[in-house]
Write a structure and sequence with these properties.
SusD_RagB_dom; membrane; cell outer membrane; single chain; TPR-like_helical_dom_sf; 545 residues; signal; 3-stranded mixed beta sheet; 7% strand; mainly alpha
Length: 545
Amino acid sequence: MKNIFRIFGIAFLLGLSACEEILVEDPVSLATAEGYYLTPGGIEDGLKASYTTLRSFYGQQNGFFLTVTGTDIFTNGFGGIANNPHINNYSPNFLGTSGTVTNIWNNLYVGVNQCNTVVNRVEDVTGISNQRKAEIEAEARFLRGLYYFHLVQQWGDVHFSLEETSGVQTEANRTPENTIYETGILPDLEFAVANLPESASEPGRAYKAAAEGLLARVQLTRGNWAEAEQLAANVINNYDFELVTPYIDLWDINNEDNSEFIWTVQFTDDPLLNGPGNSGHLYFIFDYTFNPAMVRDTENGRPFQRFLPTNYLFSLYDREMDARWNGSFKTVWYANISGEINGQQVNPGDTAIHIVMEPVPDEVKQAAPYWIIDYKGNWIGNVSAYQEIGTNQRRNYPSLLKFLDPLRPSINETAGRRDFPVMRLAEMYLIACEAAWRQNDNAAAAEYINVLRTRAALPGMEEEMQVSPGEIDLDFILEERARELIGEKHRWYDLKRTGTLLERVRQHNLDAAPNIQEMHLVRPIPQTQIDRVSNPGEFPQNPGY
């Protein structure tokens, strides 16, 4: 499944040749790129280079910071300044000087310009069929639509161009978000739907179903409910995708080619091609290594403790009925060395840590031959002093397991090889549900969501998991999206799309609640971008920053 890395192996240099000044200084490199893109092999390689930016956003901590934290379901973990608390907290220190916003902004525009290069040049290529030219253009426009979608969702009105940039450009525009959707994103994705092949030539390549799924997401964001439902329903009904059962099998790293994943960003176990790798395995897990019967290993991961689930997130799961609790969170750790816990010998394979979601009397905890970390409803993981790691309530919590990467080559390796699921069938059911509800068709909305809830039910609880049309409202839809898509880089966009970001953050994210305000519906424009433009009067900072 990792053939896509023939795509990425050359992408770095080709991507830079269209976007970075450093290569413009070499006339041979420039001339080679100019001529090479007009050959069949050159335009194909240029298209492959258009994928590079995906791995700068998906599976990277900067992308997680701007989509996962600062919401109602995740806040700051334990880790101090490395956790970028100013982003989650919407603090006065969250400014255009943020390295996170600068990194994402720069990389997305590298991706846009590489796509522009392919789209602008493909028509002049000789030696390939018109059909293949259309497919190449469609693939590049799919990616460009995705890159611009992230840009407008994060920053609102941004610089917009459909033309290739070569050399140094010092003027920038602030094109209204609506214009970018109507003249860029929507036409790009509609062209992609009409011209992409029915199936991907390689895993990770764009194809028709992926374009329809992304267009459904965009139409939902735009409030075009009928179009969103139609597109999502088409992906559900007219392809061979199937929900994976049980839910936990979705996250088996040996099951990445499963029937539910519509489109993934590819990573690999080849260190020469993997670049930064998928580092999602680092951020959602607590540090189990303080336990005397545990040391760091690849199965349990390298714990950076970046993101702390909120109390509200834990409250969303009915653990007696919903398999997504155990399918999403790790709550038991087994000893991997011999040690002594509470005066009792613990050997490899014995339980070493058990997180439980109810308060447990101290005498029970102190008598157990393993750590019991109990949830007390005031953040998570209030650990007694006898466990010798203090009482920091941000340090110990159920760990999100869907990004764990036990196939990493070493315990300290940060470059994971797990593919990142950008789009899966469950999201299509959620889009169709919300779009139907918006059109006052609660019966259809319940029908869509009950398919997901049937898959999510523990054995024998299928009937109890069903919901009636009268139970469907915006709160329920957002709760179901949280349960199903936790951590997959949807949440900040979901809250912004539904106009609930300020309300829900104030209610459920205690760190961010005092600071968040209307200005935070967009991010600060990178200061380096503002400093570079020669028309600063026409390219101001977003209000409030």
